[in-house]
């Protein structure tokens, strides 16, 4: 489990924290599951003000940190839960190498499609309170 920051305690074929071990067992009961993909893309399970960048490519981590620093310099408030959700529900499952490769929400993208616009932050929903990209 790449993203999880909790202590691994289960022995269900992989060392996982209790909640992720239980979730994997539930998936196994429902039918075949690609465990290697699940281990790379499952949500982090962070709590409070934690955001896990574990398991993300270095480029994406740098792009996210740059965007967050830019927002802070502009005085924008950032919803930690929103950023965590963005990472866990959009970025991590896409298995993208960079933010420009993350599909926009609600837009199905095919491998033959041209790359996303260079505005990497808007492509994954980093917006200021007025709705504009940071």
Describe the protein in words:
41% of the residues lie in helices and 3% in strands. It is an all-alpha fold. It folds into two domains: 32 residues, no CATH class; 66 residues, no CATH class. The protein is globular, with a radius of gyration of 16 Å.
Please outline what is shown here:
With 134 residues, the protein is mostly helical.
- In spatial order, strands of the major sheet run 1-2
For the record, the count of structural domains works out to 2
Binned, the helix content reads: 40-55%
Large-scale geometry: globular
Major sheet description:
2 strands, antiparallel
Structural class: mainly alpha
Number of DSSP E strands: 2
Rg from Cα = 16 Å
What is the beta-strand fraction?
under 5%
Instruction: Show unreliable segments.
Output: 114-125, 127-134
Oligomeric state as shown: single chain
The helix tally amounts to: 5
Mean pLDDT: 76
Our measurement of the CA-to-CA distance between the termini, rounded to an integer number of angstroms, reads 31 Å
Strand/helix succession: EEHHHHH
Q: What structural keywords apply?
A:
two-stranded antiparallel ribbon, 41% helix, 2 domains, 5 helices, mainly alpha, 134 residues
SSE layout and pairing:
Blueprint: E1 10-11, E2 15-16, H1 18-30, H2 35-41, H3 58-73, H4 80-94, H5 120-123
Antiparallel strand pairs: 1-2
